[in-house]
Design a protein that fits this description.
Strand content: 5-15%
Number of domains: 1
Structural class: mainly alpha
Largest sheet: 3 strands, mixed
Number of helices: 6
Radius of gyration: 22 Å
Length: 133
């Protein structure tokens, strides 16, 4: 008597739909490189970036999707970076959203930071003059 064994395999490939409509395989290292660049000189370490990239990939695989747009992937990364470090978020957004001028950068900052924190602090001289009147 012959016995046959079958094995099931899980295809963990994920395709990223680029802006130009082409597809490429999801590359975790590419994701890490982009986040590393945004997080350089912030309080976010390379190990934290790698952990975030692993979490993102695991979350995407758990969804069971076989493809994701680069826009959706970028939005997910920006959401996590915004929660982690605002400076890293703005840096990533500048590249990802392809800001063309300072107004767009300021708009991104104002969307996450309350306006009163963006006002210049009063100088001691201004405060002193106000006290004299």
């Amino acid at each position: 008597m012959r016995r046959f064994t079958t094995f099931e395999t899980v295809d963990l490939s994920l395709q990223v739909k680029k802006r130009d409509g082409t597809f490429e395989d999801f590359q975790q290292e590419k994701l890490i490189d982009g986040m590393d660049a945004a997080c350089r000189h912030t309080r976010v370490s390379h190990d934290q970036v790698r952990a975030l990239a692993n979490k993102l990939k695991t979350d995407l695989m758990a969804r069971g999707v076989r493809e994701i747009s680069s826009r959706e992937l970028g939005d997910i990364v920006m959401q996590h970076l915004q929660e982690t470090d605002v400076v890293a978020y703005i840096r990533f957004a500048c590249v990802y959203k392809r800001f063309k001028d300072i107004r767009e950068v300021l708009g991104a900052i104002q969307s996450i930071v309350p306006e009163e924190t963006l006002k210049e602090p009063e100088s001691e001289e201004t405060i002193h003059v106000a006290d004299e009147n």
